[in-house]
Amino acid sequence: MADQADNRAPYAQIAAHYAALITSGDLQPGSLLPSIKTLSQEWSVSTATAEKALRKLRNEGLVRGIHGIGTEVLDRPAPMSSGAQRQDRGLVTGSSWGTGERSDSHQASVVPAPADVAEALDIKPGSNVIRRSRVYRDRHGIVAHSTSWIPAQYGELIPQLTSSERLTGGTSLQLIAQATGRPIRHRFDTASARLLTREDAELLELDPAKAPKKPVVVMTAKFVDSEGAVVEYGVDLGGPGRTWQTESELSQ
């Protein structure tokens, strides 16, 4: 059942398969996942691998184990992804979408750089930059509003960067690396939380007068090429109630 083009570990492939079914709504809250034995047989993996896949889903808050019954699907919004995580996902799977996600409201324009964007891109405030934005959604609503800020000179090399259409032929970073011959070597990530501003509420399609008072997650990612030039600065604004999490494999 595993996708041969997917180079993730088998347990991660299994977990991603069921995460997609859960977040898309194909597996409804209260549904039971197959048992460890059944997963082992269906995916031709060991019971230890099947158990690890279920544990990953539990850790992600998508399911819970009920003693004597099985593994039950929960009804919780999936965590948002940072720009760096979306880049990693795109390299592995060919898509930046998380499980059960889609994107829309794609827009692009050339605008003067706001002060914080100019600082991140190491350019003069007011210099022209490409602003590319999109909204990621799943069945629970908006996952995040995502904006990519790119120095305007890359639009001269890659005209489609300034078009309000989904990119073809790769991500913006891949297209820039191909056009310049300089691979992306470094990225710098930040995670913070803030109360919604009026502008934030509008980006998340909320009524500013009725916006939630709880903080939302804000993720940034700055990407630097092999010559030390900052080629993109991404800002992801999480929808209300969305959390962020990351996972790492630790060596013993």
How are the secondary structure elements laid out?
Elements lengths: L9 H15 L11 H8 L3 H13 L3 E4 L3 E4 L9 H11 L8 E11 L2 H7 L6 E11 L2 E11 L1 H5 L14 H9 L3 E11 L3 H6 L12 E10 L4 E9 L14
Antiparallel strand pairs: 1-2, 3-4, 4-5, 5-8, 6-7, 7-8
Helix pairs in contact: 1-3, 2-3
Estimated structural class:
alpha+beta
Average pLDDT over all residues:
90
The overall strand count is 8
Q: Could you give the order of the helices and strands?
A: HHHEEHEHEEHHEHEE
The best one-word shape is: globular
Uncertain ranges: none
- Count of separate DSSP helical elements: 8
Approximate strand percentage? 25-35%
Strand order of the largest sheet: 3-4-5-8-7-6
| Distance between the first and last residues' Cα | 30 Å
Oligomer: single chain
Q: What integer value in Å does the Rg equal? A: 20 Å
Give the biggest sheet.
6 strands, antiparallel
Helix content: 25-40%
Features:
globular; 29% helix; 6-stranded antiparallel sheet; 252 residues; single chain; two-stranded antiparallel sheet; 8 helices
Can you offer a commentary on this structure?
The chain has about 250 residues and is of the alpha+beta class. About 30% of the residues lie in helices and about 30% in strands. It has helices at about 10-25, 35-45, 45-60, 85-95, 115-120, 155, 170-180, 200-205; strands at about 65, 70-75, 100-110, 130-140, 140-150, 185-195, 215-225, 230-240. It has a six-stranded antiparallel sheet. The protein has a two-stranded antiparallel sheet with strand order 1-2. Strand 1 and strand 2 form a beta hairpin. Helix 1 crosses helix 3 (about 45-60) and helix 2 packs across helix 3. The longest helix has 15 residues, at about 10-25. The radius of gyration is 20 Å and the shape is globular. The mean pLDDT is about 90.
